[in-house]
Amino acid sequence: DAMVIQNPRYQVTQFGKPVTLSCSQTLNHNVMYWYQQKSSQAPKLLFHYYDKDFNNEADTPDNFQSRRPNTSFCFLDIRSPGLGDAAMYLCATSPYRFMDQPQHFGDGTRLSIL
Amino acid sequence: SQQGEEDPQALSIQEGENATMNCSYKTSINNLQWYRQNSGRGLVHLILIRSNEREKHSGRLRVTLDTSKKSSSLLITASRAADTASYFCATDAGGTSYGKLTFGQGTILTVHP
User: Fold this and answer.
1) How many CB atoms lie under 10 A from the CB of residue A87?
2) Residue A1: what pLDDT?
3) Across A50-60, average pLDDT
4) Parallel, antiparallel, or unpaired: how do β-strands A109-113 and A10-13 relate?
5) Between chains, do B45 and A104 touch, taking CB under 8 Å as contact?
6) For residue A97, what is the nearest residue in chain B, using CA coordinates?
7) How far apart are CA A73 and CA A95, in angstroms?
8) Which tens digit of pLDDT belongs to each residue from B5-61?
9) Cβ-Cβ contacts under 8 Å for B10 (sequence gap 6 or more)
């Protein structure tokens, strides 16, 4: 089945130690999104790629970076994680940006900071 | 700024009852979407309703949209224990933000067997 896969499901890192979360998709969608969802809160968009075009949200901390080496893969890099970065990170895709269509989500990576 | 506000924050019902969740938003939209999230999992798309539509159905789900009041509701009929989850509305403002979703805080639905 075509899907969005996030690895790992759970990630533990140390305060200040860089960490990378990965997302892959078999849907061949042009758009990939990264959301941060803290406990009992709404998902918050961090950035998205429309094909290779990177779009950062204005309030996304500089600590967060992203890479999309090809259509199928997208990575979220947190350069120096702080305790406030502990959250669920969700990857989503959609076929095209400028159309009315749903987003397809992975099951997320829950990041804990020690 | 927070686009969507959902009401109630939590809803507890018995199996077989109907569940209604409401969503209000602040700015004009291109479309509004509802998603379900089971505990510890990703979001699953339920229904997308465009700004020129007033009502949509999908199985036991009914969504209404009132753009004059900037509000939407999700009705789940004949609820089941498996419907227990968090439900989020999300708005797409269109224009330069087309394809970007802003989520409400969600309603936690518990359906008791």
Assistant:
1) 20
2) 63
3) 92
4) parallel
5) yes
6) B99
7) 15
8) 888 999 999 999 999 999 999 999 999 999 999 999 999 999 999 999 999 999 999
9) B107, B108, B109, B110
pLDDT in tens, A84-110: 999 999 999 999 878 889 999 999 999
Residues 6+ apart with CB under 8 A from B43: A43, A90, A92, A103, A105, B35, B36, B37, B88
Distance from CA of A45 to the nearest CA of B (A): 8
Chain B interface, Cβ < 8 Å to A: 2, 4, 30-31, 33, 35, 40-45, 48, 50, 88, 92, 98-106
Mean pLDDT within A59-88 = 96
- Enumerate the residues of chain A whose CB falls inside 8 A of the CB of residue B40: 108, 110
Minimum-distance CB partner of B106 among A42, A100, A104? A42
Q: B14 vs B19, B42, B62, B81, CA distance in Å?
A: 10, 25, 19, 8
Q: How does DSSP classify residue B98?
A: T
> How many secondary structure helices (H) and strands (E) does chain A include?
0, 11
Helix ranges, chain A (H): none
| B42: nearest CB among A44, A96, A105 | A105
pLDDT in the model for residue B4: 67
Q: Secondary structure of chain A: what % helix, strand, coil (to 5)?
A: 5, 50, 45
Contact A97 B99 (CB under 8 A): yes
Secondary structure class of A83 (helix, strand, coil): helix
Residues A72/A4, Cβ–Cβ less than 8 Å: no
pLDDT, residue B93, reads: 86
